[in-house]
Design goal:
Layout lengths: L2 E3 L10 E3 L17 E5 L2 E5 L10 H19 L4 H13 L4 E8 L2 E7 L7 E6 L5 E5 L10 E8 L5 E8 L4 E8 L4 E2 L4 E5 L4 E2 L5 E4 L18 E5 L8 E4 L14 E6 L6 E6 L7 E4 L12 E4 L5 E7 L2 E6 L7 E6 L9 E4 L5 E7 L4 E6 L4 E7 L4 E4 L7 E6 L8 E7 L2 E9 L4 E4 L14 E9 L5 E9 L10 E5 L13 H7 L4 E5 L9 H5 L7 H16 L8 E6 L2 H11 L6 E5 L5 H4 L9 H4 L5 H9 L14 E7 L8 H13 L6 E6 L9 H18 L10 E3 L1
Parallel strand pairs: 36-37, 36-38, 38-39, 39-40, 40-41
Antiparallel strand pairs: 1-3, 2-42, 3-4, 5-6, 6-7, 7-8, 9-10, 10-11, 11-12, 11-13, 14-15, 15-16, 16-17, 18-19, 19-20, 20-21, 22-23, 23-24, 24-25, 26-27, 27-28, 28-29, 30-31, 31-32, 32-33, 34-35, 35-37
Length: 725
């Protein structure tokens, strides 16, 4: 790659001012252009803001600080922003208590519980579902002067110990601590730099396995390269934990540097799996006997290779059930002998159909399968002993989240059903008694305006005639004359479907007359594997073109207008929203680029970039590099174009989408747009990609929504006397 660095003076940015004399007139921080020219297989590409990639450079640090300060001044002056935060808080209080992550160990139930008055959840335990509860750990009381949240907690098999992942100050890396449940005291030692904070306990509770990153620096490009899965024994310091699965220890396995190695057991603890993680949905797994974990070198044997196209697998008794997408893009369930697996002779137990297989789950004796028509889900379960299939008669239509309580010992499952206009219900189901009942942890949720919500599930033609699903949710009094403001959200990546969910924040907007439009562009999996493949790498343009087509449909049919349409994309959805507004800037009044990938051509060099190669592609390939350029919003910003108002958001603790990705896009828009509409770079120093802290989250989303509602003309958010220059 050839580079040519030229220093030029920065252009004066487009600004706007407030006419009110009692308000601050903010000055937009300058973003000088300093072109760097790269050549990708003969194509020259100019990068004017490469200097923003050095997050340690004082100038870059100052730029983000100034941009954040500028954005805060602007956002603080928007009427309705604080009222929106108050509404989020009020709706949060209407749920008396929130339970999550219910984990069963014997007759003990461990869970996260959050009260409306609390910013983050605490860990509790009760004996039996209805027993009296006992507080195990409160992160807010852990260390005075510091802010902690719990990324994950994992009780030991006997329920006597618990590994807790602690995140500090909105960071995404966790420090692992081992808690004695009876005494509520931490044992010696701690383990740092663990992303996610999850561990797998040994069956005898003598220790656990985990995979740390190489550092906890969110800007370290090598943090997730050549990571090593390790074994920790209770009582050890953690500094000498043995390496059990990695590229360096097992070079013959041909593990790629960017693959994340992790180790876990089968549901019945009779097999040990070495799994290689990435965004590639195809399983890459090795198998060994649990006793082999104690050997200096584990004799790993290949179980599943990517070319086998197995999306997920579970073990029940001596049978291995797998969701195979090989020649079956919607999925089919096959079964083989777990002790002598042979995919070529595996038996089909669920043939491919029009429904997508989205999840398989094992309990002690049963197999559960979640099937989706692209929007609504159905749960079936299978008795391998009698070879009988049955369907759970769910009273809710929408998304069904399925979890086992204790797969190795119990057949009972927990089901959470929800939809666009239904806050949801927790259920317990026992396949042996066929009894479905409301869960003891369920708390009734009643919110204002829910009874007045209307849901439309439609399909609209995209640029190439392909019919694309579109979900619309709005109050029944909405007028379809183009006067309604619409928030249109899209993602379309990694084969993740936009399944129905209830959002109290969206409800707050709908109760102000806003239409919520959830798009289902290619790149997701609403219509199976083919839908995913039609929106990644070289086919990625379909993702934002489907989004654009959805917006055009809404305008054409009177749901909204171009002056009222707000587009939003988060994370990988940054590609969608960024390319939508650079390809069709006339279609949107405003846009939200929330921790979004905005410069895919350089994403490979970020901490999370190498692991995304299977989804986005690599600059080292001539075809894929051109595809990356095509999906690069930053490189499609044109000088003099009339862009909509845009709020970009970055978390300074975010290792998934590093802050300079949306930062460079913001700089380019600020220097290029001729519309006079504001472009903000909101910088969150107490946040990563997301955060559990409700006060931070409520402020963050209220800022985004208030900014766009102001720009779309909502009367509750108009800055008195404001004008655009």
């Amino acid at each position: 790659m050839k580079q040519l660095v030229l220093l030029l003076l920065g252009l004066l940015p487009t600004t706007f001012c407030f006419a009110q004399s009692d308000q601050v007139n903010p000055a937009l921080p300058a973003s000088p252009k300093r072109p760097v020219i790269d050549t990708y297989f003969g194509k020259k590409v100019t990068d004017n803001y490469r200097w923003l990639e050095d997050m340690t450079k004082p100038e870059t640090v100052s730029w983000f600080k100034s941009q954040g300060d500028y954005s805060n001044v602007v956002l603080d002056q928007i009427p309705g922003r604080n009222q929106l935060i108050e509404t989020f808080t009020e709706y949060d209080k209407l749920l008396a208590v929130r339970y999550g992550e219910i984990i069963k160990r014997g007759n003990l139930y461990f869970y996260r519980k959050t009260l409306p008055s609390e910013k983050v959840g605490k860990i509790y335990v009760r004996e039996g579902k209805s027993g009296s509860e006992r507080l195990i750990f409160d992160p807010e009381a852990f260390e005075k002067g510091k802010t902690y949240s719990i990324s994950a907690f994992t009780p030991s098999p006997d329920g006597k110990k618990m590994v807790i992942g602690l995140q500090e100050g909105g960071g995404e890396y966790s420090t692992l601590r081992t808690l004695d449940v009876a005494t509520k005291t931490f044992g010696p030692g701690q383990i740092s730099s663990v992303f996610g904070g999850y561990v797998v306990w040994l069956p005898d509770a003598s220790g656990f396995v985990y995979t740390p990153d190489n550092s906890s620096d969110p800007n370290d490009p090598k943090a997730a390269i050549d990571t090593k899965c390790r074994l920790h024994k209770l009582g050890d310091s953690g500094k000498t934990d043995r390496e059990i699965f990695s590229r360096t220890k097992y070079p013959d396995l041909k593990i790629k540097p960017e693959q994340i190695p992790d180790v876990f057991y089968s549901e019945d603890h009779t097999q040990l799996y070495g799994h290689l993680g990435s965004v590639d949905w195809r399983n890459d797994v090795w198998v060994a006997a649990p006793a082999d974990l104690n050997k200096p070198a584990i004799p790993w044997k290949r179980l599943l290779a990517p070319l086998d196209s197995i999306q997920s697998f579970v073990k029940i008794g001596d049978q291995l059930f797998m969701n195979s997408l090989k020649s079956a893009p919607n999925g089919q369930i096959i079964v083989t002998d777990a002790n002598n697996p042979n995919l070529s002779t595996a038996t089909i137990v669920v043939a491919e159909s029009k429904l997508n297989i989205t999840q398989i789950l094992a309990t002690r004796d049963y197999l559960f399968v979640n099937l989706s028509d692209g929007i609504n889900q159905t749960i079936q379960y299978y008795d391998p002993k009698h070879k009988v299939w049955s369907t759970i008669p769910m009273p809710i239509k929408g998304t069904m989240r399925l979890e086992s309580y204790e797969a190795s010992k119990s057949n009972e499952v927990n089901i959470f059903g929800t939809s666009w206009n239904n806050p949801g219900t927790f259920y317990d189901f026992d396949p042996q008694t066929k009894k479905l009942e409301v869960n003891a942890f369920h708390v009734q949720m009643n919110y204002p305006g829910v009874a007045d919500l209307v849901v439309e599930e439609i399909e609209i033609p995209s640029h190439d005639g392909v019919m694309v699903p579109l979900s619309l949710v709005y109050r029944k009094d909405l007028r379809k004359d183009g006067s309604a403001i619409c928030l249109m959200h899209g993602y379309g990546a990694y084969g993740i479907s936009a399944t129905p969910f209830f959002s109290r924040q969206y409800l707050a907007l709908m109760n102000k007359g806003v239409l919520i439009a959830m798009t289902h562009p290619r790149g997701g999996a609403e219509k199976g594997l083919a839908w995913h493949k039609a929106g990644f790498k070289t086919t990625k343009p379909n993702t934002w073109k489907d989004f654009i087509a959805s917006g055009d449909y809404l305008v054409k049919n009177g749901y909204t207008s171009k002056e009222k349409l707000i587009g939003m994309g988060t994370s990988a959805g940054g590609i969608l929203i960024g390319r939508a507004i650079t390809e069709r800037p006339d279609l949107f009044a405003a846009a939200i680029n929330n921790v979004g990938i905005s410069n895919p051509l350089r994403f490979e060099l970020t901490p999370n970039g190498p692991g995304n190669l299977p989804e986005l592609g690599t600059v080292k390939d001539s075809t894929e590099s051109m595809a990356l350029y095509e999906m690069d919003s930053f490189h499609h910003v044109k000088d003099g174009e009339k862009y909509p108002a845009v709020i970009n958001v970055a978390g300074m603790n975010d290792p998934r989408v590093i802050a300079w990705q949306p930062g460079k896009f913001a700089a380019a828009l600020q220097n290029s747009s001729s519309s006079g509409k504001p472009v903000l770079m909101q910088v969150n120093y107490d946040n990563g990609h997301f955060t559990e802290d409700k006060t931070v989250s409520f402020r963050n989303y209220a800022n985004m929504y208030a900014f766009c509602l102001w720009q779309a003309g909502h009367p509750d958010f108009q800055v008195l006397g404001s004008k655009m220059n």
